[in-house]
Write a structure and sequence with these properties.
The chain has helices at 28-34, 81-84, 88-91, 116-125; strands spanning 7-8, 13-18, 21-26, 37-41, 48-49, 54-60, 64-68, 73-78, 100-104. It is of the alpha+beta class. The model has no long low-confidence stretch (mean pLDDT 96).
């Protein structure tokens, strides 16, 4: 079962809300599919993201994949730990392996994302 306090995209990103701040990362399922993550490219603080627009890249031993923003808003922080420890994406995808923090432009966008049950069904369907 995926964490129940998050919302999800069909592209396997997650978002955790804390007031008007959203923490974004990729799911454990995505990390497993990618294999060992060796590099993460994240946006600069101050960049404005558009919902479902690409905002970065994650590179693994098997593939290079774009990261897509679950919500629109301004990047307030990019995870500095991932520059030296990209493997955190694999070992702690819902914790220390987070990607960016974003100040929400429109909190109602969260309603467009998958709830935990719907995301579970998506990954179960393969």
């Amino acid at each position: 079962m995926v964490p129940t306090d998050l919302r999800y995209t069909k592209e396997h990103e997650w978002v955790r809300l804390d007031g008007d701040l959203a923490t974004v990362g990729i799911t454990e399922y995505a990390a497993q599919q990618l294999g060992d993550v060796v590099f993460v490219e994240l946006p600069d603080v101050g960049r404005v993201l558009e919902q479902f627009g690409a905002f970065g890249v994650v590179e693994s031993v098997k593939a290079v994949s774009d990261l897509f923003a679950p919500v629109s808003g301004e990047v307030t922080e990019a995870n500095p730990s991932l520059a030296g420890q990209p493997e955190l994406v694999n070992s702690e995808p819902y914790g220390a392996g987070w990607m960016v923090k974003v100040r929400l432009a429109d909190a109602s966008q969260v309603d467009e994302l998958l709830d935990p049950a719907a995301y579970d069904a998506l990954i179960a369907a393969g």
